[in-house]
Write a structure and sequence with these properties.
The complex is a heterodimer. Chain A contains 2 helices and 4 strands; from the N terminus they run βαββαβ. Chain A is α+β, with helices and mostly antiparallel strands. Chain A is globular and about 35 Å long. The termini of chain A are far apart. In chain B, β1 (11-21), α2 (25-36) and β2 form a beta-alpha-beta unit. Chain B is of the alpha/beta class. The chains are: A alpha+beta, B alpha/beta. Chain A binds chain B through residues 1-4, 17-18, 21-27, 30, 32, 43-50, 53-54, 64-67, 70, 72, and chain B through 47-48, 51-52, 56-57, 145-148, 151, 171, 221-223, 257-261, 354, 359-360, 362-365, 511-512, 514-515.
């Protein structure tokens, strides 16, 4: 049971692949046919925040877990 | 138009003075240094710039712990923090003899001139990071941060390089180097976004692609660390050295349904106890047998580890993975892991709020106060790599190597070798003749492009699924070429790798460009795995990171030599070269 939640909003995802590129553990993968990123295995999530940082449309949301104060979302 | 059809038509040729492959700490530093010479520098990465490197996850750039963090670390961890304190000669000697903690770990067979360069340049190079807009070059602490600790260092460096006028290309996979006679004149690959074949002509090329820890099942390296640099340099005919020297970190979490990550030097960890599946402590037994204990070891379970075993943690770490591996080998592990018992750690020794263990496990509702934690040695880094001289020039003209891809490893090595290789490559490029492709080069490029086309055009089939093959390689390497090695196992491992190479690799296919990258990665992984296994079989002694069960002692009489490998007539050829003991020799 995880006490944090990750979500990629499939409606907002623009298919830029960035989150899947930076994920160090393949917790996020990219569906080449649908052109959307999706969570492959959340158990592998390191909570490194890189996907949150690179997403250009803030389609990835995280709730709970530690280190909330450290999320560096780039300024628009 | 489909990927395949588009790919057939387009090829882009780019020209630069210096090409840097890989944008981790070493690649970035090399690119900045080369750009300082006023040349045209192109920085290429197979993923997003800097973001997929292991540098961005690497703690301990400063090897420095703030006073405010000290209470949360073991008593002697301060020694770790002060690794680079002392005179240059003292630091040099430390690195030569017990460089294990910062990743060299092959006593006395390193290039002493390179070690001297790192020892003398490191502090300057670290302080210099401020010039690139890094606010605090000493800021990579393990505690109280998300695990992407390198972000505040890597991102300003990328911005600085761009500001200097450096050119960058993301998601461009380099597959091979272009060789003209004895010189490398650039590289070929493909651009995943623009979906086209790419030819880059460069007077000098620097490989800074990082290590290959992903060839192991147990590892906490990021998923893109697949040893591409070693493979492309090998295919171009460059020499590699000491590929058997893979560093394993004992403190890798091996809990099911938890990512593999290392447990930092927190106070909690150093108070913990190692136990096997039966609940028995085992480290003391091996330590006594092998003489690993310091003279002042208390062996009192309640002391922190460095007092308990009488040696600094940096040194002990090298023995922990050996003891754990032996215990697992004897069948007393639990699912290929041992247990780190933290149940008795008193609260005042446990700064848990933001600690790595709790972070990953508490977020998974893992109660470390009730249950011991599974840990196992995990592949961390490759201490060997592309052979270079002290100018970071490889055995081929025009080709340089830096960082983990080069002849060393660790963040200090990355910034020093990055800066040096960038400078020397730029000097070379300034004097070098312009690059022109000959008829036979174009033919070779066309052939390579056809290979990529064929992969994109091949029908999907179960035997050729890249992720399955990757998994098989990782399992094979872990089973046969792991922490403790024997000749018979290495032989079996090699047979297994050859089976994968002959039966599975011809079936490879790529549905799209993302998969095409993985296809090249998997080809490189097989090649690098074979290099590790062959070198491990070749070195018939145990030294530092390379531990042979059938040759358990360090053999300074016969093995003060480097194991070099290169391709010769299509085959991997291994030979030795005596070490140049310039300043220091073992007793």
């Amino acid at each position: 049971m995880l006490d944090f939640k990750y979500e990629i909003d499939q409606g907002e995802c623009i298919g830029c692949e960035k989150c899947a590129e930076v994920c160090p553990t393949l917790a996020i993968d990219f569906d080449g046919e649908k052109k959307k990123a999706f969570i492959l295995d959340i158990d592998q999530c390191l909570v490194c925040h890189q996907c949150l940082e690179v997403c250009p449309v803030e389609a990835i949301r995280m709730e709970g877990g530690l280190w909330q104060d450290h999320i560096r979302v780039p300024k628009k | 138009m489909g990927d395949f059809a588009r790919f057939r038509e387009s090829r882009k040729t780019l020209i630069a003075d210096v090409l840097v492959i890989g944008s981790g700490m070493a690649g970035l530093r090399a690119a900045i240094e080369a750009k300082r010479s006023g040349l045209d520098v192109l920085l290429v990465d197979k993923s997003l710039l800097g973001r997929a490197s292991s540098s961005i996850y690497a703690g301990g750039l400063g090897l420095e712990i703030l006073p405010s963090h000290l209470p949360y670390h073991g008593a002697n961890v301060k020694k770790f923090a002060s690794y680079f304190n002392g005179t240059i000669e003292e630091i040099f000697k430390k690195m030569l003899e017990d460089g294990v903690s910062i990743g060299w770990g092959y006593p006395y067979i390193d290039n002493q001139r390179i070690l001297m360069t790192v020892a003398s340049d490191y502090k300057l190079r670290q302080e210099e990071l401020r010039d690139f807009g890094v606010e605090d070059p000493y800021s990579q602490h393990f505690i109280g941060r998300p695990v992407s600790m390198g972000v505040p260092i890597i991102l300003p460096m990328i911005a600085h390089f761009k500001k200097m006028g450096g050119k960058t290309m993301e998601k461009t996979v380099i597959t091979d180097l272009i060789r003209q006679g004895d010189r490398i004149v650039g590289a070929i690959g493909f651009d995943m976004d623009k979906k086209r074949f790419t030819v880059i002509l460069a007077k000098a090329t620097i490989i800074a692609t990082g290590g290959c820890a992903q060839v192991y099942k147990r590892t906490y390296s990021p998923t893109r660390i697949t040893g591409d640099g070693y493979a492309i340099a090998y295919r171009a005919g460059a020499e590699l050295w000491e590929m058997e020297m893979v560093a394993f970190c004992n403190w890798t979490i091996a809990e099911p349904q938890c990512p593999q990550w290392w447990i930092p030097f927190s106070y909690g960890r150093v108070s913990g106890k190692l136990r096997n599946a039966l609940g028995e402590p085992f480290f003391e037994k091996y330590a006594k047998e092998n003489g690993w204990l310091g003279p002042k070891a208390t062996l009192n379970e309640n002391d922190v580890m460095d007092i308990r075993y009488g040696k600094p943690l940096t040194e002990l770490d090298h023995y922990f993975w050996r003891a754990c591996s032996m215990e697992i080998r004897k069948g007393r592990g639990d699912n290929d892991a041992v247990l780190l018992d933290l149940r008795n750690v008193p609260d005042d020794r446990w700064y848990y709020e933001n600690d790595g263990i709790t972070a990953l496990n508490e977020m998974r509702n893992f109660d470390w106060k009730k249950k011991p934690l599974h840990i196992a040695p995990g592949a961390e880094k490759q201490a060997g790599g592309i052979y270079t001289d002290e100018y970071f020039k490889t055995s081929i003209e025009g080709l340089y190597a830096a960082g983990e891809a080069g002849p060393g490893v660790s963040i200090p090595f990355c910034i020093v070798s990055g800066a040096c290789s960038g400078r020397y490559a730029a000097w070379y490029a300034r004097e070098a003749a312009p690059v022109e492709l000959r008829e036979e080069d174009l033919k070779w490029i066309e052939k390579k492009q056809q290979e990529a086309r064929r992969l994109l055009g091949t029908e999907p089939n179960p035997a050729g699924e890249v992720r399955d093959i990757k998994k098989d390689i990782k399992e094979t390497m872990w089973k046969y070429v792991g922490t403790l090695r024997t000749e018979s196992e290495l032989r079996e491992g090699l047979q297994e790798l050859e089976r994968i190479e002959n039966e599975r690799l011809p079936k490879l296919f790529a549905r799209d460009f993302r998969e095409l990258r993985e296809v090249y990665e998997v080809v490189n992984m097989v090649l690098v795995s074979k290099m590790i296994a062959e070198s491990a079989m070749f070195r018939t002694e145990s030294r530092g990171l390379h531990q042979r069960m059938d040759y358990p002692t360090e053999d300074n009489l016969n093995w003060l030599k480097n194991v070099i490998l290169k391709v010769s007539k299509g085959r991997m050829r291994l030979f030795t070269r005596p070490v140049n003991l310039i300043w220091e020799s073992p007793e």
